[in-house]
Amino acid sequence: MWYWWTGLAVGVFFLVVVVYDLVQRKHAILRNFPIIGHFRYLLEMVGPELRQYIVTSNDEERPFSRDQRRWVYASAKKQNSYFGFGSDNEMEQTGNYLILKHAAFPLPSPKAGEPGYDPGYRIPCAKILGGHRQRTKAFRPASVVNISAMSFGSLSGPAVEAMNRGCKLAGCLHNSGEGGIAPYHLHGGELIWQIGTGYFGCRDANGTFNLEKLKDCVSKYPIRAIEIKLSQGAKAGVGGIVPASKVSKEVSQIRGVPVGKDCVSPSTHSAFDGPDSMLDFVERLAQETGLPVGIKSAVGQISFWSELADLMSSSDRAVDFISIDGGEGGSGAAPLAFSDHVALPFKLGFARVYRQFAELGLHENVVFIGAAKLGFPESAMFAFALGCDMIAIAREPMMAIGCIQAQRCHTGHCPTGVATQNRWLMHGLDPTDKAARLANYIVNLRKKILMLSRTCGALHPGLISGQHLEILNGTFGSSTLSELFGYRDDFGMPGITDRQSIESIMLAHQENGLAPIESTSL
């Protein structure tokens, strides 16, 4: 008899759904196609997951293809990250296809048990951060690969903790993001403290900048540098955005904003209003803290960069580093029009900014950092050849700690607990386990960067020039990177003194196994 009651219950349920579908007025599809119409919304809801596993080819899915995600996951899990049966890319028929030109006699890569072998594949920065301005706490970063800005609030507490623990294991720097320094940032990894337009962590009751609070934070936390955020690639011009669904009580306390309401940073700074006053602000922070101070920005109108370069060349003021974010970047929520159509892509934007400084002879005095989908060996090499001294990566580390590219960052319902404040979803992310995976990914990325550098005959990726890279145009033609971006022969490289220093460090490492384990202070 039980099956009769079960059938009756199922029938009543479907009858109720049919009545609801026919009566409601919000969805035309449901009114026209009761019950069946629900499948449309179900398929729409799981569309990204279906496309990434069933519909698309290895190179189609965006923002990261299946091949790219597979490489990150394999690297993080210490699995085989090699691919078989040759490339499936149409090299000669694809525009802007990158080729690295190998040397006839490449440099050897030490294996386990051989002199010079370093299991951490550490690559120190070729320049000294804060060296040109002789900052009190200038230092040589131990890793050219570091974690880009992702705030607590945008990411969950366990995710931030996993990132920081992973940075400690890998010996790299962790950018706090503009949301302030949370307890999750304090698990051994050294920090670059990002200060945005909201001044979270160093603001007064009115939301304006407070120097004493900044100095208090610098004295308490392992901060190695300060980054002033002007804009970011995903939403240049609108400030940071944390959707209301992510503004938990803990986030509100750290940021000083109401619970359950969108946390939107102002679109511009109140502490300065142009390049000239910004340089005064930079020098003030550097003098009060002794730390290197730099800026982060996406690239739009070039007049700002031209004026900044002119001011730095004609006065005794300068930023210590410049982080350029591409318009294709973005680890969180953003208005679609901004993420798709505002700010230049990284390669174009970075090259334009770099030329402004190089043409005035300033490129050797500034540490350049690149961001925007650079967490893959070939992309990183492109960035180094353009003139980057370091790269900062965000979404690739998110994948290393579990992100499946579900693209639910803006909803607060990230299924893997990475980009959410939902306690149930967060509880599945183990920071200790994911920290190891992040470190594995960073180490393998550095390993492949070193392999490619040595394949081109260079000891260090910073010694790769635009002549080492060729860009195919899809019609059996090509140009070197230098030709394509209008670089002179000395563009994209550190100065002679820095080149000699980093060559000496890498040679000593190769001959004696002397790996620089920690960032070297001067």
Automatic annotation (TrEMBL):
One of its GO terms (molecular function) is glutamate synthase (NADPH) activity. This is Glutamate synthase [NADPH] large chain. Keywords: Membrane, Oxidoreductase, Transmembrane, Transmembrane helix. Its EC number is 1.4.1.13. The chain crosses the membrane at residues 6-23. Residues 140-457 form the Glutamate synthase domain. GO terms for biological process: glutamate biosynthetic process. Belongs to the glutamate synthase family. InterPro entries: Aldolase_TIM, GltB, Glu_synthdom. The keyword Signal does not apply. Coiled coil: none annotated. SUPFAM superfamilies: FMN-linked oxidoreductases (SSF51395). It comes from the Bacteria. Gene3D superfamilies: Aldolase class I.
